């Protein structure tokens, strides 16, 4: 059982930066059984969720094509937190961003992760 709280969204001008945080807690965290993947997804109303970035249980990252070289996902195991640093933001990056986790890399990548945060809105103006 994992609970995720994502935060850090806001409004920023094009070219700016934001850092999102995903704090994980729950019995699996407390028990030290935290061998799951964590990812960031984004969604615009009327469209499907899109993979932004994810890390496997060892912290190795994977990025969506449009996010590579602009976004960086990282994890701080001591703080049970995963971060998404977003640079060179574009108006098309505007979306609701969700933190998600699952023990399965493939399930998480598909957008069907078992655990989800509440979402944090990112708005990029031109």
Element layout with pairings:
Blueprint: E1 3-7, E2 10-13, E3 18-25, H1 27-30, E4 37-43, E5 50-55, E6 61-63, E7 71-76, E8 81-86, E9 95-102, H2 105-109, E10 115-116, E11 120-125
Description:
This protein is mainly beta and 126 residues long. The chain is built from two helices and eleven strands; from the N terminus they run βββαββββββαββ. The strands form two sheets. Strands 2, 4, 5, 6, 9, 10 and 11 form a seven-stranded mixed β-sheet that branches. A four-stranded antiparallel β-sheet has the order 1-3-8-7. Strand 5 (50-55) and strand 6 (61-63) form a beta hairpin. The model has no long low-confidence stretch (mean pLDDT 91).
Throw out a few tags for this protein.
126 residues, mainly beta, 2 helices, 7% helix
**How much strand?**
over 45%
Q: Report mean pLDDT, rounded to a whole number.
A: 91
Q: How many separate helices?
A: 2
* SSE topology string: EEEHEEEEEEHEE
Brief overview:
By secondary structure, this protein is mainly beta.
